Amino acid sequence: MTTSPPAAAAASPPIELRAWRQFVAVAEELHFGRAAQRLHMTQPPVTQAIAQIERALGVRLFDRTRRRVAMTPAGEALLPDVRELLARAQALPARARAAAAGEVGRVRLAFVSTVGFERLPTWVREFHAEQPGVALELVEATGDVQLEAFARGEIDAGLMLHSPGQAPASLASLAVSVEPLVLAMPAQHPLARARAPALGQLLEQPLVMFPRRILPSLHDAVLALYQRHGRVPRIAQEAIQMQTIVNLVWGGLGMAWVPQSVTSFRRAGVVYRPAADFVADTAGTARRRASSSIDFPACETSLVWPAGDIAPALVRFVEFVRGRSR
Known about the structure:
By secondary structure, this protein is of the alpha/beta class. It folds into three domains: 17-100, Orthogonal Bundle (Arc Repressor Mutant, subunit A); 105-176 and 301-325, D-Maltodextrin-Binding Protein, domain 2; 180-298, 3-Layer(aba) Sandwich (D-Maltodextrin-Binding Protein, domain 2), CATH 3.40.190.10. 40% of the residues lie in helices and 23% in strands. The model has no long low-confidence stretch (mean pLDDT 89).
């Protein structure tokens, strides 16, 4: 005789994994006695466990008669999910050990646009190959936005641009690279076509500049260059992203000091001139290369993260970057 559907309890206790294992054994054996033998148990506890599950769910999982046991549609539908649940539970200890070793997890990484041209795509590919269990969640953000995100706990690490040695003191940091600034110029500008443009003339040109709030140390370093030569920069336009700055140079709004890595962003109608191309006026009419007499600004990219104890997955990423930075 087929048993009637059980009534669901108003507030059933959670079903233990042991009971789910007994459910799988009965489902696979379709015999309570054989399921009990397989689990090295007597039959009554197995029968009680199935009854407990059915009461908790309010549905019948097995049709039971004196001659046979068969799964109901509800039991058949539930079986794959229960098998997955047990497999995931069995994998938890190994996953916990892997997480403690930094082999699984995630790193929420913010980055400035300059590292997105070449360095970051290569690192993402290589890090994934070395640590496939650690997910890198990337978000492009300027330095000021990164500092706010750190304060809110929204990111784990950041690749930030600043003047050499001027990484935020509140964060742990690792210098990734140091590069000079170059001058982005409209290709049709007479000084862009000059073989050796005079620095004094260049410093008088309109300037497309990033706001001080996003790169204060580098902004100040550029202004200091003008001040050392008795000039006040003519800032014609401010922009945040380096690609936007280069596009505004192409549009004829002015020239722009940008990190050398930005030269990877090829824009027809824009040329990049390094400091070695410039000459500076000296006493009388003699002229010499500016690069030999002028302290041109440079910029540094650093990986930054909160000081103190950090997650093992982040430790792995920091060591990965350290190895690449050497």
